[in-house]
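Hey, I'm writing a tutorial for new members on how sequence and structure tokens pair up, and I'd like a real worked example in the thread rather than a made-up one. If someone can provide the structure for the chain below, I'll link this post from the tutorial.
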Amino acid sequence: MANTKYQQSINEWRKERNETIRKENGWLSLAGLYWLKLGKNQLGSDPKSEIMLPERVPASIGYLEYNGKSVSLRANPSQKINVNGTETDFAVLQPDTSENPSFIKLQDIQLVVIQRGNKFGVRIWDNQREERRSFPARTWFDINENFRIPAAYTPYDRPKMAYFPDVAGDKSEFPVDGYLSFEFSGKKYQLDINKEDDGTLFIRFSDPTSKENTYPTGRYLIADVEADGKIFIDFNKAYCPPCAFTDFATCVFAPEQNHLDFKVTAGETHPHR
């Protein structure tokens, strides 16, 4: 007999995931991603701008200057720009990888400098984007409690370096903190994971459904850690990376060793077009 309480918890989780991508400054609000060139990068709605903003913004509001190591904002004369709640005409901008990123606000548009390896860029959110309302609802496999699997976490003595493919087609080397081991259909498996600062066990994985009806480069998953320390990999909570919803995300996908040889017919689906 189906566990109604469990099914209800999964449905509530899925509803929350669907709402999250539509919220203000969420993934469906993303309106642009521009990689910075050395020197001045003009900022405004002028099509000639290196960082082009929506038409309702002035043609030119200033520029971002990139010196190879950091990024600064310079507003046009007599103009002020909101950076983290303060009106200013100049600021050295902290990227999204820092503890206190610098968020630029222009009406209901938000910008932040992003750092990916040695590259710096600018991500733009526009909360008037129609996609927030019109993007189709997320789709899922039927809930199957057989895909909620007990697991054990083993940390590496020290983080192990692994290659992760990214949305640009490159491979970047990142540390992995340990692995989750589990059994499925009588066979043993393990998945490398990243342990976040809050203790979250974050998994990137792929499986044969990636070629059929889930996101082509794999899915993400956060392991369930219960109050008594027991760990479960619940594939009913597997979800698509942000790149499934926007062209302006910088996704990192599953490493080769995290490809599973069985079909994970649980979690989020993605139509192959």
